[in-house]
Structures are given as C-alpha cells and as structure tokens.
Amino acid sequence: MTERPPEAAGQAAVTVTSADADGRETPAVWMLAVEAPVQVAVNGTPFTVMLATPTDLDDLARGLLLTEQVIASAQVIRDVEVRTWLGETLVNVVVAPDAVQTGRLGARTVLGNSACGVCGVESLAHLQARGAAVPRPRRAVDDGAVARALNNLSAQQPLNRATRSVHAAAWCDMGGRIALVREDVGRHNALDKLVGALAARRWLDDEGFIVMSSRCSYELVYKSSVTNAQLLATISAPTTMALQWASALELPLACANGRGDDLRVIRLAPASYQEA
C-alpha cells in the first residue's frame, strides 16, 4: 500500500499507477494543484467568479480589484472577508462606498478561467475602455539582477515543486533578490495575488521588478502597471499583444534563454514592436 503524503494548502493527493517501458505497473501518489471556483464580491455585490488555487485569496481579491480598476487605491479597503462552505469560497472586499468605480463592476459578468485574464470581460469595447495607465519613469534593471531572479524563482515555488502545475509571480528588489512570491494555477491569478500582497504591505510604490514563470501575455503587462515595477521578466517570450501594451505603458520586458550558468537575458524594448 502506498502511503499518502500529508496534503497542504492548494494541493490534493490522488492515487495513480505508473508503468515502465516493460509495462510493469507501480502504485504511487501524486499531488495535484487544486483549482476551485472563487467568487469575489465588493460590499456584498458579486463581481466575478474565478477559477483559482484557493490560497492567499485575500491577496487575490485585493489585487484583482486594483488591476481591474474597481478601486483606485488599496487604502480604501476596510476589510477582506474569506468564507468557505462545501468547497466553495466567497471573498467579500469591504470598501468605502464612494471609492468603488461602479462602472467597472460590470466588467466581468461570466466565469473567469485560470488561463486568460481577458475571459469574463464583457466585450472588446469594454476591454479597450480600460485605457492605459499613465507611464511611470523607469530605472534600468541590471542583466545580472534579472538572471539571478529568474534562476532563483523555482526554489521559491513550494506548491509547484509538489504539483508541477502552477505558476508563480515574484517581486524582486533592484538587485534581483526575490522578496515576495505568490502561486496559482492561473498566471494572471498569481500576479493578482502578488499585487494584493504588495498592496497589503504598502509596497506598490516601491521600486523593483516582477518575474513570472510563464510566457508574457497582455494581462500580465497591464496588471504589472499597477505596481512600480521597472521591468517585467518572464520565462518565455511575449505575445505581440503583450508587446503592444508594453509599448503603450513604456514597460521594459525581458525573457530567459537557457538555464543556470547558461541563462541569457533577452530584452525587448517597448518601442521594438512593429506590425508585420
């Protein structure tokens, strides 16, 4: 009989059978990442239902309201209430009523899945109406600092080590030291959690940069603009839409090529995007 390891937050043990090349089967236990519906509400009014890893949900809700422009500042949040019943979770964010951008509460009217931050947005017109944040002045981040953070990211992912199926978003200081990490099955959820954690610590205006374990997509660029990130570095390259938004927000991008001592930092200047 295979002993089941203890389950930790965000993961669940399942019994599997593995077979070698000769067909010999061996029972084993795998840890899978939990993906569950999480409803986010503002002052009791439903905003969206996300599929997410049910960890750090106060950070997820706090960051989501900031990156989706439902609130303009974390200082207007009075409380975050997390309630779980029969496997379903409600996260209610209590906000000063006059601080809620009520027009944004209709931005997500369907289920937001763990793969795409645009899913759940009411329409393309609504997406475009978000507008670009005011570009901030940027300070150059050293290649060595970026490489250091990219190489050290996997060591800061306990949930991914157990399940091999979740993404991470990390906040790094300008020297490349990882100061804060959040994990989730969805890359944009992980970043929302990171933004929420930064807001809770009052670090949103601090200089640093963001490193992520995924490709660079549009929503990661947009969500990063809520912070004072000087650069967004991802394991894989950006999409054209991500580069378009990086150009609009004047946010430098970087990605990794290789690993360990062979890792090279590939930079994509915001102005480098041109339509083919």
Which stretches are low in confidence, meaning pLDDT under 50 for 5 or more residues running?
none
Q: How helical, in percent, are the residues?
A: 10-25%
User: In CATH's first tier, which class of the largest domain applies?
Assistant: Alpha Beta
Task: Please state how the strands of the largest beta sheet are arranged side by side.
Answer: 8-7-9-10-11-12
CATH topology of the largest domain: Cytidine Deaminase, domain 2
Main sheet summary: 6 strands, mixed
Summed up, the domain count is: 3
Short descriptors:
single chain; 276 residues; alpha/beta; Ubiquitin-like (UB roll); Cytidine Deaminase, domain 2; 3 domains; six-stranded mixed sheet; four-stranded mixed sheet; 30% strand; globular
Plain-language structure description:
The protein contains 7 helices and 12 strands. It is an alpha/beta fold and 276 residues long. The chain has 3 domains: 1-33, no CATH class; 37-129, Ubiquitin-like (UB roll) (Roll), CATH 3.10.20; 143-272, Cytidine Deaminase, domain 2, CATH 3.40.140.10. Strands 8-7-9-10-11-12 form a 6-stranded mixed sheet, with helices on both faces. Strands 4-3-6-5 form a 4-stranded mixed sheet, with helices on one face. Helix 1 (57-67) packs across helix 5 (187-200), helix 5 packs parallel to helix 6 and helix 6 runs parallel beside helix 7 (240-249). The N and C termini lie far apart (59 Å). The model has no long low-confidence stretch (mean pLDDT 87).
